[in-house]
Hints:
By secondary structure, this protein is mostly helical.
Amino acid sequence: MREYLLAITLAATLCFLITPIVRGIAMKAGAYVSVRARDVHTVITPRWGGISMWVSLSLTLLTVSHLPLMSKSFGRELTGIFLAGTFIMVLGALDDLYDLDSITKFAGQALAAGILLLHGVQILWLPINGILTLPTNIGQLITVLFVLVVINAVNFVDGLDGLATGIVAISAAAFFAFSYLLAVINGFNRAGAPSLITAIVIGICIGFLPHNYHPARIFMGDSGAMLLGLLLSAAAITLTGEIDANSITQQGSSSTLLPLLLPFAVLAIPLLDLGMAIVRRLRAGRSPFAADREHLHHRLIALGNSHRRTSLIVYSWTALFAVPIVVAAFEPLWIAVLSALAIAIVSYLLIRDSLKSSSTARQLTTTGA
């Protein structure tokens, strides 16, 4: 654990120190966001936070590669994840600067997923009627689709200061807990790469959040959102798609479904927001990628919540889905239920005041009418 804590601390420190430098470069290069009708920020804010994340990722990987335990995580898969992450970061940085069209971004995201496939990062089985080994072409297609969905889910939820950063940090922490327990406690060596990647992602988010929390001084931009989305999807694939679920069960975990459920539980809020946005826009006859102000965070702000409270509420929702699933993998079900209940209470307390305010406003409106 000490080496993983070192990786988290190093990544956080590097990202915290590098981000102000990247912020200055982004402003000089013109990679900033002017205030638009759908935005919640009120001042011009630079993008390119993904560049500071990538530099931190690179330096951390270079450093920990010399550590006894973590050096075992380096191999073909980790190389592919790094190369795909580098490509998607460059694509996102160009988009932050030139506002690329959606087709170009989709093609680039698919190419990044192809880089993962070339390095052996692929979903190999699904828990259908026991364990269903996927044909190579079907596994590759599902892998590409999964990567695309996760990248765009993180990108879609990145609409409020610190929101996506915190959600990804919580998601990565859940993945790390699951993969660390498999790798260290249960001896699944192949879980080493996702343990390392998610540990670094946690550190990156911790280091970036002070600059990104409201009022944000820099945005992660597409360079950061797509990089984090790719890293999360790759960690999920290497963790859940390449470990024999039957062997996990034999080691004492609860269910063969848990490795498959974990990515969707951990990423439930971004995936839900993505799905709702696509349905909403298609029903309105618009492109699913046409921006609007009807995301979950927009609706919470409309209830009277501040930027910071809204972020905390969505953080709690993310934890509500992610934490109990991880706990259920290694502890009795009643402990998982208690953890869910505790988080649900915290979430309710966070949103209670806004619900009261909204109810009062409706009563006043009705009385006035």
